[in-house]
């Protein structure tokens, strides 16, 4: 839970809000969070995720127009195998510039080995549900 006086709020809404983290990666780095508690992407309702992504997109657009960012990185981790350190769903929106001299992109590929074809398995699982 974020205390009212403990955050620099960028915007607050009934479903999602945005604030600056205590240790921003870049000027304007913002966290988008659901107002209600959801641990991760696996338990958040689709409507909450849709509103969070709408706010992420609006912030990204403002970072480009107001901060003159060349782009943004959108980062999130969900579940114990993902390095999620805070058990509340959140999305980092990090403005980027060509001269910022850091990377948020993974430097290495996963060493995990999967038996079978993961693309076929995912495609079959997706085909089995109604996504319309």
Automatic annotation (TrEMBL):
The active site is at 90 (tele-amp-histidine intermediate). GO terms for biological process: nucleotide metabolic process. Residues 1-103 form the HIT domain. InterPro entries: Histidine_triad_CS, Histidine_triad_HIT, HIT-like, HIT-like_sf. One of its GO terms (molecular function) is catalytic activity. It comes from the Bacteria. A motif (Histidine triad motif) lies at residues 88-92. Gene3D superfamilies: HIT-like (3.30.428.10). This is HIT domain-containing protein.
């Amino acid at each position: 839970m974020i205390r009212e006086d403990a955050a620099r709020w960028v915007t607050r809404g009934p479903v999602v809000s945005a604030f600056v983290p205590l240790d921003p990666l870049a000027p304007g780095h913002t966290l988008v969070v659901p107002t209600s508690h959801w641990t991760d992407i696996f338990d958040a309702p689709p409507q909450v995720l849709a509103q969070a992504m709408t706010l992420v997109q609006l912030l990204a657009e403002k970072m480009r127009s107001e901060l003159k960012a060349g782009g943004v990185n959108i980062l999130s981790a969900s579940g114990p195998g993902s390095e999620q350190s805070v058990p509340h769903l959140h999305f980092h929106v990090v403005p980027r510039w060509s001269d910022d001299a850091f990377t948020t992109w993974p430097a290495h590929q996963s060493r995990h080995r999967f038996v079978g074809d993961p693309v076929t398995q995912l495609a079959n699982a997706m085909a089995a549900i109604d996504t319309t």
